[in-house]
Amino acid sequence: MIEYASIGRRMVSFVIDDLLVSFLFIAIFYGQIVSLGTQEAMIFFVAQNSWVLLLLKMFYHTFFIAYSGATVGKYFAKIVAIDETSGEKLSWSMAALRAIVRVIGESLFYITFLFAFFSPKRQTLHDKLTKCVVVNV
């Protein structure tokens, strides 16, 4: 029997994944970041390069969801994203669509994530659009 992942496990996964992507962003730009002198310069730098962060998030989520069904965060939370009808991993195109809608949802004050609170399967909008569910391993 399928057991849908709890909101708590999904939140743990989300935090781990966001931290990893943020560390990757910092690693890529480390030399430039340490040379910034003021907080205002740091804010300006991050704003100028936010598109890189968005692309990193999309690539990260697409790759891991299509490759194994689980990002690093999902692995530690012991949950996996699967196709709702077949129970298999998502295709690369569905994983990419899921990642794009997910990033858009984050940019819109996480509004698309609220769907999970009102869905019996705890699906976010990016899950619903790609016919995916997140389940316990």
The whole-angstrom Rg is 16 Å
Strand order of the largest sheet: 1-2
Percentage of β-strand residues: 5-15%
The rounded distance between the terminal residues' Cα atoms is 11 Å
Number of domains: 1
SSE ordering: HHHHHEHHE
Beta-strand segment tally: 2
Q: Report the total helices.
A: 7
Mean model confidence by pLDDT: 97
Largest sheet: 2 strands, antiparallel
Which regions are unreliable across 5 or more consecutive residues at pLDDT < 50? none
Q: What is the 3D form? A: elongated
Indicate the percent of residues in helices.
55-70%
Classify the secondary structure makeup into a structural class. mainly alpha
Would you write up a description of this structure?
By secondary structure, this protein is mainly alpha-helical. It has one domain. Helix content is 61%, strand content 7%. The chain contains 7 helices and 2 strands. A two-stranded antiparallel ribbon has the order 1-2. It is elongated. The model has no long low-confidence stretch (mean pLDDT 97).
How does the SSE layout of this entry go?
Elements: H1 7-28, H2 30-34, H3 39-48, H4 50-68, H5 72-77, E1 79-83, H6 92-107, H7 125-129, E2 132-136
Helix pairs in contact: 1-4, 4-6
Q: What attributes does this structure have?
A:
2 strands, two-stranded antiparallel sheet, 7 helices, 137 residues, mainly alpha, elongated
TL;DR?
The protein has 137 residues and is mostly helical.
